[in-house]
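[audit] Reproducing an earlier prediction to check determinism. Same input, same settings, fresh worker. If the tokens differ from the archived copy the diff job will pick it up downstream; this log only records the rerun itself.
[audit] input (205 residues):
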Amino acid sequence: MARRSVMTLFSAPSDPWSHRTRIVLAEKGISIELVNVDPQRLPEDLLDLNPYHSVPTLVDRDLVLYDSRVIIEYLDERFPHPPLMPIDPVTRAQFRVALYRVERDWYGLAHDIDADPHGKAAAHSRKVLCEAICASAEVFRAKPFFLSDEFSLVDASIAPILWRLPAYGIELPAQAQPIVKYMNFIFSRPTFRSCLSPLEREMRH
């Protein structure tokens, strides 16, 4: 395969892992060639690049990255302004724990819902995901962003799941008002709006 001179992101227009990568790109103002793909019918060049045949996949010259967590941390280090992780090692570790929990819990449950939306497992996952989100209401209340006064990789990871709640069939209860306020704040950001795919825009209509 010929070497690419422009950074390229292979992205699915509806999956949250690709979405969070696009959010980070938008927050950083990074120019990129975006290749939208169907996860069920990946293009040959992506199959050649990524042994796991997954999205998102980032190509930066001779470097190929194919895990969304690795990609967003690479982008934050490669393009350090604005920084999306704390400089202090202790706080950075706390943010990494938050990222781990969001990925393991929220993203795992979202995957279960997407896999079989009408099955019994999905109904259970909806309940557990709603409870997990609501359990963080006081954290959302404490600061403008999650755990921070500034937008971070944690916000970029949380936002795609919260955006998809209507599509998952989840309605937050009244006691989740701090989360709803946070959602309205995040979703109104120009950077967030700019990176939505047409399919993602339909999720809240």
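[audit] rerun output stored. Observation attached for the diff report: The domain at 89-197 is CATH 1.20.1050.10 (Glutathione S-transferase Yfyf (Class Pi); Chain A, domain 2).
[audit] end
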